[in-house]
Amino acid sequence: MQGCSGAQASYSLENAFLRFFLGIIEKDAYAPRMNKKPYDPKTSKEKDPDGPVWLYGRHAVAAAINNPARKIHRLVATLNAAKWLEERGIDARYQDLKPDAIDGMLTPGSVHQGLAAHVDQLPRARLKETCQPEPKSPGPVVVLDQITDPQNIGAIFRSAAAFGAKAVIVQERRTPVLAGVLAKAAAGAVETVPCVQAVNIARALAALKEMGYFCAGLAGDGGTDISEVPRTKPMAFVLGAEGAGLRQLVGETCDTLVRIPISAAMDSLNVSNAAAVGLYELTRGVPFIAEK
User: Which of 60, 73, 98, 256 has the largest CB neighbor count within 10 A?
Assistant: First the structure.
């Protein structure tokens, strides 16, 4: 056997290690990537924004069950919640689970009241078809300009349903999915009030004006008392985000800016409260509430 010096032996060992190390890198480069953690639809950033969602809360889920346009993939309920459905004449197949098992299916802190449903999102409503003025359906259209808080949006949907609104128009990119805490705050209203997603709110207002709507934007410094808004045309009620209010172009596109008179002790109302007060005033005398 031919001998070798210490330097040659060291060089050979270094080459062998380098070839081995590069071989691992090359092999790994073509190997499939494996997630260290299992896929979790509640936290994954890859969740399909148009895919199925969870609804929870008794009124939100009951309304979804009663909505023929809503496809339900899975319904889970505690025995008490199932009894609550039965007492209301709602017959649905469900999986009997304990409250903590339902907790594990939802985002932390979800107050599900023992009832949750995994559902497809509702088909998107189109502005011109949904908001077309009709004498038999004179309710207003509610327009939300950059309102992003799900509790507020849900509460506005609830008020919109209570006061016979034809639709709620939201900004496509900035609005949470109509599910979870938003749908629970809406208490079933997302099943009954169509939601129109608009890319541009100012252009949506222009389209409403072409259809004959009078667009009234709510602003603290509005020049017109909301009680003085003319009722001769279909009404679009425009609300801006808390603090920021209506954006300049949106405000300029409105026919008028209105205010709700309140005590000097407070600067403003919460936007969902303002929506309820404004919708009550704008629909006074409008025959949209069906007799029960």
Answer: 60
User: What gap in Å lies between CA 189 and CA 193, rounded to an integer?
Assistant: 6
Closest CA to 159 of 231, 151, 234, 201: 151
- Determine phi and psi for 286, rounding to 5 degrees: -85, 125
pLDDT of residue 288: 57
Q: Are 234 and 215 in contact (CB under 8 A)?
A: no
- My answer on whether 138 and 272 are in the same domain is yes
| Radius of gyration (C-alpha) of the chain in whole angstroms | 28
In angstroms, rounded to a whole number, what is the distance separating the alpha carbons of residues 97 and 280?
A: 41
CATH code, domain carrying 74? 3.30.1330
CA–CA dist 38, 61 (Å, integer): 28
pTM: 0.81
Supply the mean pLDDT for the chain: 85
pLDDT at 4 over 80: no
**Last residue in a domain, options 81, 97, 119:** 119
